[in-house]
Every structure is written in C-alpha cells, then in structure tokens.
Amino acid sequence: MHGGFSLIQLFTRFAMLGAEWVMWVLVGLSVASVAVMLERVRYYRSLDDDLDALSSAVRDLLRKGDLSGARARLEKSPSPAARIALAGLDEHDAGVHSAEEAMAGATARVRITLERYLAFLGTIGNNAPFVGLFGTVIGIIQAFDKLRASEQAVREAARRAAAAGGGAAAPTFDTGAVMGTLAEALVATAIGLFVAIPAVAAFNFFQRRVKEILASNETLTRVVTASMAAKNAPTPYRGDVETKTAKADKAEKSEKTSEKH
Fold it and tell me: Helix, strand, or coil here: 9?
C-alpha cells in the first residue's frame, strides 16, 4: 500500500523493536507461576490431618450424643473434611436431607478455595509457548529485514563499482547478523517452553491433589449422615421386638388353653 496507512509496515516497525521484551514477559510469567506453586504447596500442606483418627473420634462422640464435643473436635482440625462435616452437624436437628444439602454447599465452597490460582497456572501452561512463538516470529521478521537491507547494500555497492568502471562487486551478505537474530528468535520459543512445561505439570499435580482432598471428605460425611439416620429413625427394631414378643406370648397362651381343654 503506497501513500497511505499500511498495517504491514506498522507491524514491521513494531517488530523492529526486538523480541527481548517478550522474553522479559516470559520471565515475569515464570516468576509468577513459581510463586503460585509455592503458595499452593504451602496451603495444601496446611490442610493435612489424620482423617482416620478424626473420623473415629467424631463417631464415638456422636454415638454418645455429644454434639458439642464432636463440633469442638472438628473445629480443631484444619482439613476441609472437618469444615464440610461441621456444616452437616449444624443441620443435625433438621434431618439427613438438610444435612446432605448443607454439606454439598460446603463442598462447593471448599472446592473454590482449593482450586484458587490453578486457572492461572493452566493459562500460563497453555499460552506461554505461543508467547514464545510470538517472540520468534518477531525475531524472524527482524532477520529478514536485515537480510533485505544487506542485499540492498550489496546491490548499491555493485552499481557504484560498475559506474566507476571497476566491474561488478562480489555480493557479500552480512550473514552473521542474520543468524544472530534468528538465534535470538529461537531463544524466545525455548523460554516459552521452559515456562510452560513446569506450569502444566504443577497444574495437573494440584488438580489431582484437589480430587484426593475432596474424595477424603467422604469418610466424615458418612459418619455425620449415619449418626443422623440413627437418631432420626423411628426405632423400627424396638417395634419389631415388641411385636415378636406379643406374638410369642399370644401363641404361648393359646397353647396353654388348648392343653387345658
């Protein structure tokens, strides 16, 4: 496009700024991703607890009818399972269904906390290679621009030599500058991969950790729902025993009456 606005020329001038700023962006993303990894590792470790011992203690307290003791024991635990079980105990008098709904809501809130910043890691892992590739493209544009400038210089030197009567000059290109620019361009892609691979690995690891933590909640939620089911049951066993006893007494009386006759 001549004599007007050219988007290609605009982007070419932008590419001439170099790809170093892209590398600095990748370095910044790398630092941010490492910070997120360290924060998540520290957070997940702070949630560790002996859930088997906690489940046994809460089960014993609930069997004794000590709801306040069960709540106190759960409040001491840093695990998400304890928070979910506490939400169920708050609905202990409302029935099993209410408790299950409360624990489902608590599980959703816990999941949000557990998955915090993981989307950032996933985004870096998916897009860092493309950022590096963008830097590589900028470097290649620079390399070809240098190659074009070198070719024009050779042609101009040949024209001047021919005009001066010295014959045609041998074409010599500044290949060193071109190759150096291409090497810098490929470094951007390498840095992008260097940033993306750890981010993807950490994202997958943390996602699996979240699933393990949420799966471990099942033990405590079962304890709470079993306790509530036993408390709210209409004591069918007692009724069955009384019915069987009454039938046995009636049969015994019938047998004694038949013996008298």
Answer: helix
Helix, strand, or coil (residue 15): helix
Per DSSP, which regions of 17-171 are E strands?
none
166 DSSP assignment: S
DSSP string for residues in 201-252: HHHHHHHHHHHHHHHHHHHHHHHHHHHHHHHHS--HHHHHHHHHHHHHHHHH
Query: Is 241 within 8 Å of 108 (Cβ atoms)?
Result: no
Sequence length of the chain is: 261
CB atoms within 10 A of CB 209: 16
Percent of the chain with pLDDT over 90: 25
64-118 residue pLDDT tens: 888 888 889 988 989 998 999 888 888 877 778 888 888 889 999 999 999 999 9
Left, alpha or beta for 88 (phi > 0: left; psi -120 to 50: alpha)? alpha
